[in-house]
Amino acid sequence: MFVSPPLPATPPTEKLTLAGVAGGLLALLLALTDADPGRRQLWFYAALGLVSSGTLAWSWLKFGGHPAGVQQDNLWRRASTARGAVAWATGLALTGFYVVLYWFSDNDGLGHFGLLNNLVHALDGFSHSLRARPADQWFLYGTFYTLAVLLMGARALWKYRHSRYQLIRTASVMFFQLGFAFLLPGLLQFFQQPEFYFTYFWPLKYDYLFPGTVTSLLHNGGVGVFMVFWGAVMSLVATPVLTYYFGKRWYCSWVCGCGGLAETAGDPYRHLADKSRAAWRWEVRLIYPILGLIILITALLWAHFATGGTLLGDAGNVAAKWYGFAIGSVFSGVIGVGFYPLMGARVWCRFGCPMAAYLGLLQKHFSRFRISTNGGQCISCGNCSNVCEMGIDVQQYAQRGAPVVRAACVGCGLCSTACPRGVLNLENGPREGRLQASQLIHADSLRILS
């Protein structure tokens, strides 16, 4: 009987850095419970410092001090990355945080933010400097979110330093998260302008094309008019054009904050994506109806607006609120991030994101982007399928020498990076080269639906 060898022991230096991260989490707990404002702020920033320094030091020791290359060893044997006890504990902690953030941290009008009140007010000084106003739970969340992208982005830079494509792509999501999704919205508020996220577009940021949001922005003068123009052009004009030339990767893997967190903080869990046909069926059953639902809600709200508010009564706004609760909060937040350690990092992108569905339809049917394969060189090692976070069995395409043309593919390029033989290549070629893959996908779809 085969007995797998024991896991390699963690070096003492790595243990020391992980102890620093654990100390930071303990300091964060003390900041959450300490009633003294001065000590609370001290604990909070000590926590950020310990977590940041510990994560960066561990990343360098783990990846920077070893030969470059995609290292996927023992992922299915570790409790943290194989749905073991550590993974479940991490998933429960992340899910609990999102539940508290969304439903137990409302501002009561007196500056109290529920269970996260102490952590929120520990950021008041930073918030005043950036936004000229006190912190709230969303500023706390944005700070944590951005820090996670930056720290785990540094880990990815060390881990994939041998790949120019991965270095540029990782730097891109770090830049857009820090600059356009965190600092710029804060500076807009500092100058008493509407908070606006220039890297989020309809239908992902669904309310940006709702009549109420558009009317409100238009009343804010030239800046508001530009925001409406930007949102409409990026959603309806730039997105199809960019997707035609570059596939959905220009957004999902280079710009989007959801994708940015998945590609950095979610990188240790990319192998957990379900690659079964049953998962593919659920992908089709969920993501396209969600896209259709937000299109319908947007159209109904505009029809209601055009009729002077007499068409739907409160039904349109109620539908929008329920969509925001079920899809915008539960699916994208609680499930989308909380289930990273159990279902992989792209659960939201794969099964729920309407922007991914929109981009995927464009990519599958109209884009020049594809991943070409050379079946004669494939050795069936399975590395490409193992690293695919979107649940695509890339190896099957490689073995047949068929280009990968899938609506789900976000063009992260890890399949190509992980291939030891250079079988897979990301290309923006003529559409004629997509014919074989389209025929194979059609045949696979018929088998799935039968």
Automatic annotation (TrEMBL):
Q: Which InterPro entries match?
A: 4Fe4S_Fe-S-bd, 4Fe4S_Fe_S_CS, Electron_Trans/Redox
One Pfam short name? Fer4_9
- Residue intervals of the 4Fe-4S ferredoxin-type domain: 369-397, 401-429
Keywords annotated in UniProt: 4Fe-4S, Electron transport, Iron, Iron-sulfur, Membrane, Metal-binding, Transmembrane, Transmembrane helix, Transport
Segments spanning the bilayer are: 43-61, 82-104, 138-158, 170-191, 223-246, 286-303, 323-342
Q: Cross-referenced PROSITE patterns, in alphabetical order?
A: 4FE4S_FER_1, 4FE4S_FER_2
Q: What is this protein called?
A: 4Fe-4S binding protein
Source species of the chain:
Hymenobacter negativus
The major lineage groups are: Bacteria, Pseudomonadati, Bacteroidota, Cytophagia, Cytophagales
